[in-house]
Structures
1.
Amino acid sequence: MISVEEATKKLKSRVKPLKAEEISVLKSFGRILREDIRSPLSIPPFDRSAMDGYAVKAANLLGASGKEPVALNVLEDIPAGQVGKFRLKKGTAARIMTGAPLPRGADTVVMVEDTESAQDRVLINRSLAKGTHVAPAGEDIKKGERVLQTGTLIGAAEMGMIAATGRSKVKVSIKPKVCVISTGSEILKPGKALQPGHIYDANGYSLIGLATELGADARFLGIAPDRKGALERKIARADDADLLVLSGGVSVGDYDLVQDILLDMGIKRIFYKVNIKPGKPVFAGIQGKRFVLGLPGHPVSCMVTFKLFAGLLIDTMLGKEETGLRRRQAFLSVPIRLKPARRKFLRGILKETDGRVTVQPFHAQESSILKSMVSANVLIDAPEGVTELKAGSLVDVIPL
Ligand code: AMP
Ligand code: MG
């Protein structure tokens, strides 16, 4: 049996980023950027007014006050989107709106509230420091600046940033096609009437959720019973997948046929069985560019092993800046006794109170208790060989 690290290493050495495609920025939410974005322009591209008011030269307002206002001739109106025609000379101002470019000769904007207008003149009640209410060119972004790095997850702010540089299209990773099959003769499609001895499929749904969350194009191929022909037919439908994930049927029971069928179909084994709890019986294989994972049927084992192994594959295929599991640390709030044999990923509830981050294990840790995944927000990573984790000790946690 190999360790999680050895298993991950075996996958890492075989998986590569998929191709990139160019798509509309409007459709890019949640995608992974596959180019550096540099701005070909300064943002804003010109010195612009940050207020509605009057563009002036600060030096012309020296000594202005409510009692002794300075009177300036208003040369023109400059709304946003227009460029002033005149250069400001001594004794002049231009009416200007927020977002409009400062006219030549101006260096400061006086807010409407600090002025009184009188026909084509304006009275200014105060002096201002040069540059007041002016957003200088390049205040946000300098021309040539790299604003986003390849591998970044595109969210709302990133979409706006890309568009602000003048781009309507952007290069992103194609979404890995992840096909999911649930196996087991007892597994029933939700929506059908429950039959004796059957349970509804949970894994198919959790796996589609996890794959979607990671940014894959996740497709559910349905449920296959524990019969060779039926399993083979389902598996064959995933020929063009980048990753095929099956749950159930990969252990050592009489009806656990998945591994043998996969090997018969020409899929080469990368590893089988990893020294973890939950999730020991996990199969990883490869055929051409397609990866295949056979995950244990217990819903918790299934989700945990997906996060460990499918997560790494999908992240790498997407060319993400960071791949695999993110980690942080927390103080354990109660002691945990453990059997030393296997590396454990316990479901835990992380809390942050007054800056102290604590984690408490969920009361039921059996791999069949799906409820623990609903309640938990982290997995507590308990190393192999450890028999006790003391209350107050610092442990590694993996956010779910
Ligand atoms: P297996 O790995 O096939 O031996 O299954 C282990 C346990 O997980 C059994 O109790 C199965 O009924 C259960 N199981 C397998 N597949 C699913 C599924 N898709 N949804 C919910 N439970 C499942
Ligand atoms: Mg089964």
Note: The chain has a mean pLDDT of 96.
2.
Amino acid sequence: MSTARKVIIDTDPGIDDAMAIFYALESPELDVVGLTTVFGNASTDVTTTNALRLLEIAGRTDIPVAKGAVRPLTMPYRGPVEFVHGTDGQGNVFLDSPTTAVASSDAAHFIIEMVMADPGAITLVPLGPLTNIALAMSIEPSLTDHVAEIVLMGGAAFVGGNASPAGEANILNDPEAADIVFGANCPIVMAGLDVTEKTLMTTADIARLATFDNPTARHVASIIPHYAAFYRDRLGLDGIHVHDSTTISYLIAPDHYTWVEHPIRVDCGHSFSRGKTLASMRVSDHEEAWQRRRPVRILTDVDDRAVIELELGRLAG
Ligand code: RIB
Ligand code: CA
């Protein structure tokens, strides 16, 4: 019997999402049992098309794709980030249309069906706004009693944001949903900017990746230049932050990380700090709003060369 951990990846592909999905598919420690899609880096129509195409490229059309929410819970979609991910969400390579189709269930119901059919076995790996997970929790309030763990990319506990001075993009794209998810009754790991901005895949690493001779690495090598140009031109970096892959590295090699554990609320106000992930750090002082929440494992540091080598090794095939 396989001991691989069953994961559903909830995603808005997205260049770093594509890397994380392929990394997971190449990792025997993980069994990807579904992809669910959400708006974020691009519209849900685009991210769903990309999810289907990515699985075709990987030769894994056996994995179902369930289409998710097209907008946040309470506000309009903030729109695509073409300057980071391209108008197609895949670095403007404009993939052919997929030949496969989405599952009959929407993302929230797919998550509920999978978790309730296999209680305690499924780990959720959200790589985009948390709308689908929050919807699933609202439809089935006992859902997170039966989720093994949520390991999410999002948030910024002790550093500034990347979509606003306070807000990380995935959280700022649906703060109300994120605040629901951080109240989930299961272990939660937050791979936010605190650690993902310490994880740099350098230009030299990317040049190495471009020599890998397999379909998934070739696709990644074709989409990274658009992403790398953003990091070079806007941030002056010699490489890229591999935000979403951090969830996969943590799942397969947690010893490369350090963390602290505190309950989190998300600022859902409509002022400058909207979308900030607020960790309550003094146990005796917890405000009532934090008191009934489980502590979230907030990743704070990483052996970044070790995890980049791990990812490159898996993408090499
Ligand atoms: O802030 C980084 C996150 O925003 C990543 O998930 C990236 O794909 C974008 O969605
Ligand atoms: Ca993402």
Note: The longest strand covers residues 30-37.
3.
Amino acid sequence: MNNFEFYNPTRIVFGKGQIKAIDELVPQSARVLILFGGQSARKHGTLDEVTAALGQRHIETFGGIEANPGYSTLMQAVELIHDKNLDFLLAVGGGSVIDGTKFVAAAVECEGDPWQEILVKGAKDIRSALPFGSVLTLPATGSEMNYNSVITRYETREKLSFRSELVFPRFSILDPTKSFTLPPKQLANGVVDAFVHIVEQYLTYPAEGRLQDRFSEGLMQTLIEIGPALLNNPTDYDLQANFMWTSSLAMNGLIGAGVPEDWATHWIGHEITALHGLDHAQTLAIVLPSVMQEQRAAKRDKLLQYADRVWHINEADEERRIDLAITKTRDFFEQMGVKTRLSDYQIGAEAIPLVVEQLEKHGLTRLGEREDIDLGKSRKILQASL
Ligand code: NZQ
Ligand code: ZN
């Protein structure tokens, strides 16, 4: 097992009716900005509940954060915070709103150009950020319990990420009833995103992370079990509760501690979203099966373990076992209703050179657990995804 440091200070308050706990979690004297997305938080009453829980505190609201949160939109929130002298942020939504809030928290205190400082330079010089909490309405990204954020600059079609310990949420309210209203597409996206997060911290090479492997296998099996059931029963409390906790644990640093990681699928996926507007999870469902195929030799031992322990495949022939494991992964995404080919989204071979060019521009030229996915391999992965 590799050396590691594990730090996760986010308080999780889990369960039905927990939004009222906000009253104890936000300082009494706070001047609060509630950030949310399009209409879902307002329409389904979550915003009202949050406002009620904040009681007499000074509150301002900022809506309109896009799915794939936009830099220009978020900079308007930064302005509002300065204008109204606000000092505590509350994100109400899915990964986009929480990621956007992380960026806003850092940008408010940033000297210099926030895009450059936080996203291009990766926030390494950022010294402070506003405190914030979140109310999760869409299990998927794990943003509610991690220090990552992914921001899109629509003007230049760039999607960049940053990580900083300064943007761990102080708390996150995980009330599974809040995701009862998710449409099938968002549920499916969430299951696929969480599943791929686990795969990218698991499917590398054996590193004697026995517990990490078994955590990962347990999380993947839980998603395989509950994913299709959720599509049929989105208002089943226990299914949603398992989904919410699984997706948080998939991306809170726990399963990746002490083991190699391979984020190639995510990096390539981000470029596809930036250029073609696909949902985050759609890009992952397209790219992952091709990464598995292209890297099958390098990932051989873990692919066999994955085939055995996650999918219970026990064919005699090892190559056949790996083939089946890749097929079952693709079939799972398709079963959830997420298409797994670029052509399913009307994207053809002519789109590939620009994706590769953007990977190069963003320095993503040595991906994978052994940094052996160069631009040539990324191109092959994309071609295999057509
Ligand atoms: O905007 P509204 O009207 O609120 O609708 C949202 C949005 O259109 C809707 N929604 C959310 N909660 C709902 C709901 N609809 C009905 N009922 C509810 N309870 O769902 C739509 C998608 O929301 P979004 O927040 O965009 O989805 P998700 O949570 O999948 O977040 C995706 C973003 O997170 C980034 C992605 O790149 C993408 O930008 N990621 C963040 C990560 C992190 N911070 O660690 C890691 C991930 O790999 C990912 O890259
Ligand atoms: Zn993701």
Note: The chain has a mean pLDDT of 97.
